Amino acid sequence: MVELQINTTQNVNINFTAASVGERILAAIIDLLIKVAYIIVIYQIGFNITGLGEWLEAQDFWSVTAVISLLFLPVMFYSLLFETLLDGQTPGKRVLKIKVVKIDGYQASIGDFFIRWIFRIVDFNLLGPLFGSVIGLIAIISSPKNQRLGDMTAGTSVITLKNNVNISHTILEDLKQDYIPTYSSVIKLSDNDARIIKDTFKTAIKSKDYKTLIKLRRKIVDVLELKDIKHNTDHEFIDVILKDYNYYTQNM
């Protein structure tokens, strides 16, 4: 299991789990089956129902090529189209709960998806249909971030969304019924802010990264414009901030 650490635009590190080779292969198989189904449907409709085949027989080479290319455009641009429309997922990836993300914390753009799509020629088709996936598989297996060549060039990776989630992985906190909040200005934070704070806090505590705790505390103080700090340690202060946020958002 490969762990990816993504640095967000807020200079916060968030850990994700890279999708396994098996998950990516299964997603690719599902996508392939969808493409094959599309081809079968187009063939049945175009050649057996509408009589397109007979019409094509009477056309010149370039006209036939143009029509066939047009019909197969959805297959050719399948991954680019769906990854752009579904925010980094194809139907196969969505079923397997994996998606494409930028490893620098930014949201992948159509340009990134286009680069990944172009490099499919190298990753999957360079050696022909029989051995076409060898290069991509070797790249994924040998890469420390499970990236194929297209991912390396685009600065992306494929992560799994199937992490086991419990309360420690969410913005929720266990609060006692008689809990009394301390900092009312936490309502200035968004859910995403709270999640980033909690992820950074948990990671820093686990790795004993006290410098990050200090920076995180200072950032919170600046954002919330706090003047009266009632907690001496960074650990206690940030923990209370998270609990206060939960208290106010749960009771709004």
| Major sheet attributes | 2 strands, antiparallel
Please tell me how large the radius of gyration is.
25 Å
Secondary-structure element series: EEHHHHHHEHHHHHEHHH
Hey, roughly how much beta strand do the residues contain? 5-15%
**Order of strands across the biggest sheet?**
1-2
* Overall residue-averaged pLDDT value: 80
Structural class: mainly alpha
Principal-axes geometry comes out as elongated
Could you name the ranges where pLDDT drops below 50 across 5 or more consecutive residues? 164-171
Helix content: 55-70%
How many structural domains does the protein architecture include?
2
Rounded to the nearest angstrom, the distance between the terminal CA atoms is 40 Å
Query: Count of helical segments?
Result: 14
Total number of beta strands: 4
